[in-house]
Amino acid sequence: MQLGMIGLGRMGANMTLRLMRGGHEVVGYDRNPESVSAAAKEGAEPALSLEELVSKLAPPRHVWMMVTSGAPVTATIEALAPLLDPGDAIIDGGNSNYRDSVKRADDLHQQGLHFVDCGTSGGIWGLQNGYCLMVGAEREIFERLEPIFATLAPADGYAHVGASGAGHFVKMVHNGIEYALLQSYAEGFELLAASAYKLDLQSIAALWNQGSVVRSWLLELAERALEKDPGLSSIRGYVDDSGEGRWTVFEAIEHDVPATALAHSLFARFRSRQDDPFGARLIAALRQEFGGHAVRSE
């Protein structure tokens, strides 16, 4: 099957490679010509503009975007849509807000174009292990694109989860759960590290992956990270967020769902970015005022 790929960063380049290994033809475009050249060396058909990409695709065309959510996705669609014909499809495989995806699907439908929102999980390991794909689309378009999904995903690793927006909604909740899982492991291993015992954290992670109820791929990755750097001394404890955790908490509030673990994990990320936060200093000051407790000066 033929596919256009817009965005040849780490994810887009690896997805392109996996598709080509599965026998598909990929026309690749990226704003960075070096990324296009790298994909061409692997066998992709290069395109140095959106116009060139579309010209190299046979109708009905299918164009997959691996572009940063928000304004970049909007700008890409606005530039791409006028180049396409009715019946062509645009797939957004990034982490867009599902509400944006619903609106984009409606807008493109009025132009005779199909829109697919595909939540994509797998990160840098997707090339080797496959990507978990959560697809929101019309059933007919999902079935037309199914050979692409089947190649990108491991066995049973893709599904049509609902109408437009459903794919990105499911991926949003997936990432919210990911936040909470990461926070649980972080707190548990911090407690292990703070104990009076001289514990080998890498060995404990390896142990827990053998039949324990907390075993997981994340724990396998923790084992790898701790093997490389047992005290994680080379890493600063600054944890960013890319939006999905916030959106998940907003949705929980709107639907009156008590997502306390998810919310805490998001707020913990905010705290990780602060150096000597004001709130902690205020608590210390109040304890001194009401109880005469000692404080530590700068």
Polypeptide structure, described:
The chain is built from 13 helices and eight strands. By secondary structure, the protein is of the alpha/beta class. The chain has an eight-stranded mixed beta sheet with strand order 3-2-1-4-5-6-7-8, with helices on both faces. Helix 8 crosses helix 11 and helix 8 crosses helix 12. The longest helix has 29 residues.
Shape: elongated
Strand order of the largest sheet: 3-2-1-4-5-6-7-8
Count of runs of 4 or more consecutive helical residues: 13
Order of helices and strands: EHEHEHEHEHEHEHEHHHHHH
Helix share bin? 40-55%
Key descriptive features of the protein:
single chain; 298 residues; alpha/beta; eight-stranded mixed sheet; 13 helices
Concise synopsis of the structure shown:
With 298 residues, the protein is α/β, with parallel strands linked by helices. Helix content is 52%, strand content 13%. It has 13 helices and 8 strands.
